[in-house]
TrEMBL record, chain A:
Domain of life: Eukaryota
Family annotation (Gene3D superfamilies): 3.30.465.10, 3.30.70.2190, 3.30.70.2740, Uridine Diphospho-n-acetylenolpyruvylglucosamine Reductase, domain 2 (3.30.43.10)
SUPFAM superfamilies linked to this entry: FAD-binding/transporter-associated domain-like, FAD-linked oxidases, C-terminal domain
PROSITE patterns: FAD_PCMH
Organism annotation: Lentinula detonsa
Record domain FAD-binding PCMH-type: where: 72-251
Keywords: FAD, Flavoprotein, Oxidoreductase
Name the UniProt record assigns to this protein: FAD-binding PCMH-type domain-containing protein
GO annotation, cellular component aspect: mitochondrion
From TrEMBL, chain B:
InterPro entries: ET-Flavoprotein_bsu_CS, ETF_a/b_N, ETF_b, ETF_beta_N, Rossmann-like_a/b/a_fold
Domain Electron transfer flavoprotein alpha/beta-subunit N-terminal: 32-231
Pfam family for this entry, one: ETF
Keyword Metal-binding: no
Gene3D superfamilies per record: HUPs (3.40.50.620)
Main location: mitochondrion
Keywords: Electron transport, Mitochondrion, Transport
One GO term of the biological process aspect: fatty acid beta-oxidation using acyl-CoA dehydrogenase
Superkingdom classification of source: Eukaryota
Cofactor: AMP; FAD
Native organism: Lentinula detonsa
Record lineage: Eukaryota, Fungi, Dikarya, Basidiomycota, Agaricomycotina
UniProt keyword annotation of Transit peptide present: no
Name of this protein: Probable electron transfer flavoprotein subunit beta
Length: 468, 270
């Protein structure tokens, strides 16, 4: 799914804004349409349009038209922000009848240009649909509007001692509808599984405006076809998600984290095996960042750095998080693991640090979660979010770096760095190429190279943009 | 007892186990305090004190006599974890003055008297040259303990320290203090009391080898009776309430309306 989408997106970009066959069969929104929407939508803040009848200042549409990285820029004239599912349905029906293109948009935090228009399609933003519809503290089942921000939902269930089953760096801005539409993974997938498992039901507006209400609060429901699975990850191409029913797990009573410094990348997998075995059910995250990614995060002040002594000779770092029901039990397991790692005949790690309080816990996480922001501050990023066999992470990064070096592009003026970081536990690597500026030269060197990486041993099964 | 370059420097670092600063505190139903059934950790200013003691050791020229850093806490059995953290950061030994779980938190005067008793006990051995502790704890914000210790012992004090420059030969330290309106420098002789302020340093992460080593470092257990002190509260807390909730403001349509509302509320032009 993602790969098809990404291919069609690349095609339209490569053809440098000439009308692709798809786009040319769509109509643009007219002033009459805008007037109609202004009447139909309940609030004047629900429509922004540079068309004459509404005359919103053009700058106000920028945050909707442009992606988070400033790499992809759409040319939409109109943003609609319905407040109810019924309004969404009416918009979709109207546009369907007139073949007006729509781009559904949540938090616009995606990093592969999937949330902004290609040309002047209408942006249908879910940002005004922010109600929590219900929460059952016994089962943990939460029903919410698609426009609810992930962090807000986390805050909502926290007093009930529950947490959201997913967590990602964009949590302060991303919306649950967008998370579901893109089948977002994130930092907790290792422990709580993917949205294909934790989403119990969806309310979706189909392309003809029909409202498909499959919102259920049943934990197990085997009646009929499990249609929601089609919409999870469909990126808004099969329908617009307007409501989500999701299972929230109990909040851990105890959380700990450590950052381990590894002398060699080759130690990551054996380390993962050991950690999995010894920590067992309390392991909740296993994240990898290579040395360059760590240095960047520190350089841009994302979190407090480890001491010079601790990072000496480290080729990469692993962040391990534990979450469990009893602090003493978890600490015992964690201490045993760390002792066995340090006292092994051939230690897999150089050293590591452990958070002693919640402030340090957040700071260690910030070193990992802040890599994305550090990358944006360092330069313009080409982001490839790929699923590869674990053993080949480093090779992917090295091969990409080599490719750029061989094309003479690896220098301060062009590509400043190639880094890798990601969810080792899920086999998901974030490959980032940080350039001074986006140029066709760099783009050509990278694509389709990255999609066709053939490492020495294994054939890659790339599922690009596996999270975004 | 004064240190000379060829002797050990003995640093005592009192630390307190307090409600973690990130916790959302709630007043308890009896309105006598806050709900204490929440995460606790080392008082952040005390963490800075431990860090400074360790840095003092690291700043010593190579080949100097080693210094001894003793962490001290007065608290229930669980406070031992706070000592382990201090040991993991680099303290050498620790003292735990244990009080019952149900006992009220010790007050600054009680703590100061206990610390005096401990220092007097040490006099027979090598003595304590410096006591470095947080300027205040984040649960009661009283900010008195350091000053009281100095008063009871008759030692010099440099409080709200944001920079410490030791001069072991001259047996003194130049300390930069944070005060209203800026910074002040004082010179204080050994033995001294220093209380730490936020900008003194940023505490390190505890590294794994040190965490492992900390488990084997000695912790001396003492009771209030051993020290001849009592932690009987001198203060009685009458009531604890949350601050009044903020009421929402109102939006006005024009400057005239604003002026009208201000006048109605009793504000007049001067």
């Amino acid at each position: 799914m993602s790969r098809l989408w990404h291919w069609s997106r690349r095609c339209s970009l490569v053809l440098s804004r000439q009308n692709s066959t798809l786009a040319s069969r769509l109509n643009s929104i007219t002033d009459a349409d805008a007037l109609h929407f202004a009447k139909v939508l309940s609030s004047p803040t629900s429509i922004l349009s540079i068309l004459p009848s509404i005359s919103t200042p053009p700058e106000e549409l920028d945050i909707y038209n442009n992606d988070w990285m400033g790499k992809y820029r759409g040319k939409s004239t109109t943003v609609l922000k319905p407040k109810t599912t019924q309004e969404v349905s009416e918009i979709v029906k109207w546009c369907n009848d007139r073949r007006i293109g729509i781009v559904p948009q949540g938090g616009n935090t995606g990093l592969v240009g999937g949330s902004v228009p290609l040309r002047d399609e209408v942006i249908l933003s879910l940002s005004n649909m922010t109600q929590v519809r219900s929460f059952d503290p016994i089962s943990g089942i939460l029903v919410a509007d698609a426009g609810c921000i992930l962090q807000s939902l986390t805050d909502y269930v926290a007093p009930h001692n529950h947490i959201m089953p997913l967590d990602l760096g964009a949590k302060g801005s991303c919306q649950i509808g967008g998370n579901v539409s893109t089948n977002a993974g994130g930092l907790r997938l290792l422990r709580y599984g993917s949205l294909h498992g934790s989403v119990l039901g969806l309310e979706v507006v189909l392309p003809d405006g029909t409202i498909l209400d499959q919102l259920t609060t049943l934990r197990k429901d085997n009646t009929g076809y499990d249609l929601k699975q089609l919409f999870i990850g469909a990126e808004g191409t099969l329908g617009i998600i307007t409501g989500v029913s999701i299972l929230t797990p109990p909040a851990p009573q105890a959380s700990n984290n450590v950052i381990l410094a590894l002398p060699r990348f080759e130690n990551v997998l054996p380390l993962y095996k050991t950690v999995k075995r010894q920590l067992s059910e309390i392991l909740s995250a296993f994240e990898f960042i290579d040395r360059t990614a760590y240095d960047l995060a520190v350089k841009h002040g994302q979190g407090r750095a480890l001491s010079e002594e601790d990072v000496k000779g480290a080729e990469c770092f692993v962040l391990v998080e534990t979450s469990g029901g009893r602090r003493e039990h978890d600490e015992e397991k964690l201490n045993n693991l760390l002792e066995s790692l340090l006292e092994a005949d051939e230690p897999l790690i150089n050293t590591g640090v452990m958070a002693q309080n919640p402030a340090q816990f957040s700071s260690l996480w910030a070193l990992r979660e802040g890599v994305t922001e550090a990358v944006s501050k360092e330069g313009k990023a080409y982001k490839y979010d790929i699923s590869v066999p674990l053993s080949t992470f480093k090779e992917c990064v090295d091969l990409t770096r080599e490719r750029l070096r061989s094309k003479g592009l690896l220098n301060e003026a062009q590509v400043k760095a190639v880094i890798g970081y990601g969810h080792v536990g899920d086999g998901n690597l974030h490959l980032n190429v940080i350039a001074k500026a986006y140029t066709p030269e760099i783009q050509d060197a990278l694509e389709p190279f990255v999609y066709e990486l053939h490492p020495t041993e294994a054939q890659y099964l790339l599922s690009t943009a596996s999270e975004l | 007892m004064r240190p000379s370059p060829a002797r050990l420097l003995n640093i005592l670092v009192p630390v307190k186990r307090a409600v973690d600063y990130a916790v959302k505190i709630r007043v308890n139903p009896q309105q006598t305090g806050v709900d204490l059934n929440v995460k606790h950790s080392m008082n952040p200013f005390d963490e800075i004190a431990v860090e400074e003691a360790v840095r003092i050791r690291e700043r010593l020229p190579k080949g100097s006599e080693p210094i001894n850093i003793t962490a001290l806490t007065i608290g229930p059995p669980k406070s031992i974890e706070t000592l382990r953290t201090a040991l993991a950061m680099g303290a050498d030994t620790a003292i735990h003055v244990e009080i019952p779980e149900s006992a009220p938190a010790p007050e600054p005067l009680g703590v100061a008297k206990a610390i005096r008793a401990i220092i007097e006990k040490h006099k027979d051995k090598e003595g304590v040259d410096m006591v470095i502790l947080g300027k205040q704890s984040i649960d009661d914000d009283l900010g008195q303990t350091g000053q009281m210790i100095a008063g009871l012992l008759g030692w010099g004090q440099a409080t709200y320290a944001s920079k410490i420059d030791l001069n072991l030969e001259q047996k003194n330290a130049v300390v930069t203090r944070e005060i209203d309106g800026g910074l002040e420098q004082v010179r204080v002789k050994f033995p001294m009391i220093i209380t730490t302020d936020l900008r003194l340093n940023e505490p390190r992460y505890a590294s794994l080898p040190n965490i492992m080593k900390a488990k084997k470092k000695p912790v001396t257990k003492l009771t209030p009776a051993d020290l001849g002190v009592s932690f009987e509260p001198q203060m009685e807390i009458l009531k604890v309430t949350e601050p009044p909730k903020r009421v929402g403001g109102a939006k006005v349509e024009s400057v005239d309306e604003l002026v009208e509302k201000l006048k109605a509320a009793g504000f007049n032009a001067v």
